[in-house]
């Protein structure tokens, strides 16, 4: 049995964070057009998250006036996005953030409510960035379920993710991993 059959986070980089997440049952015989539509939506959410997560290169010499104006504009846009996300959270009942471990092939999260059944197919609604008030909707199969009061630790493998979604997800996880390494080196 392949390690990915029992551990969706095996052999890959893992992004660990507190993120809003929920789940709902999924009919495994869903239509291809539904999965294509969901993949396009997820690609859009990840593209936005990757765009917001890109860091500007350090300027060696003087910053030009244009660069300075662009950076001020970026700060204002980020503030606007955060305010819209907070407003959306109040009106749309975004779930509480919980500890999430995300890899390109799967996810583990702490489920405080009733967890999904082992080997069930689910939709995972994951808010990947607090500046984006829209959740990724990820088709998955529950592979692990461990009682860890209060709640359960749930592990799921992604299904029918789509090539571009997979690529954007890997990019985001790698960027986070690289940032963690840089922060650990700066702390030494």
Task: Provide a compact summary of the structure.
This protein is an alpha+beta fold and 188 residues long. It contains 3 helices and 6 strands. The chain has one domain: Thrombin, subunit H (Beta Barrel).
If you had to describe this structure to a student in words, what would you say it looks like?
The chain has a single domain (3-54, 67-186), classed as Thrombin, subunit H, CATH 2.40.10. Strand 2 and strand 3 form a beta hairpin. It has helices at residues 32-53, 65-92, 163-186; strands at residues 15-25, 97-102, 106-111, 121-126, 136-147, 152-158. It contains three helices and six strands, in the order βααβββββα. It is an alpha+beta fold. Residues 56-61 have low confidence and may be disordered. It starts with 14 loop residues before the first strand and ends with a helix. Strands 1-2-3-6-5-4 form a six-stranded antiparallel beta barrel.
Global geometry: globular
| Rg result | 18 Å
Beta-strand level of the residues, as a percent range?
25-35%
Instruction: State the CATH topology.
Output: Thrombin, subunit H
Structural class: alpha+beta
Strands in their spatial order, largest beta sheet: 1-2-3-6-5-4
Strand count, sense and barrel status of the largest sheet are:
6 strands, antiparallel, barrel
* String of helices and strands: EHHEEEEEH
What is the number of domains? 1
The CATH class label is Mainly Beta
Any guess at the CATH architecture? Beta Barrel
Query: So how many helices?
Result: 3
CATH superfamily: predicted glycosyltransferase like domains
Mean model confidence by pLDDT: 83
Low-pLDDT regions: 56-61
């Amino acid at each position: 049995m392949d390690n990915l059959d029992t551990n969706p986070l095996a052999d890959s980089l893992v992004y660990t964070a507190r993120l809003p997440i929920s789940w709902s049952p999924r009919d495994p015989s869903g239509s291809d057009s539904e999965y294509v539509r969901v993949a396009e939506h997820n690609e859009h959410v990840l593209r936005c998250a990757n765009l917001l997560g890109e860091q500007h290169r350090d300027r060696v010499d003087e910053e030009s006036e244009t660069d300075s104006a662009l950076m001020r504009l970026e700060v204002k846009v980020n503030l606007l996005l955060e305010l819209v996300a907070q407003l959306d959270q109040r009106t749309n009942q975004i779930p509480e953030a919980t500890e999430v471990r995300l890899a390109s092939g799967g996810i583990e999260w702490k489920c405080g409510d009733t967890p999904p059944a082992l080997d069930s197919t689910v939709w995972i609604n994951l808010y990947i960035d607090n500046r984006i008030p829209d959740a990724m909707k990820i088709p998955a199969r529950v592979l692990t379920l461990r009682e860890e009061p209060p709640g359960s630790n749930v592990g799921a493998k992604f299904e029918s993710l789509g090539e571009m979604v997979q690529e954007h997800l890997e990019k985001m996880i790698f960027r986070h991993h690289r940032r963690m390494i840089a922060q650990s080196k700066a702390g030494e």
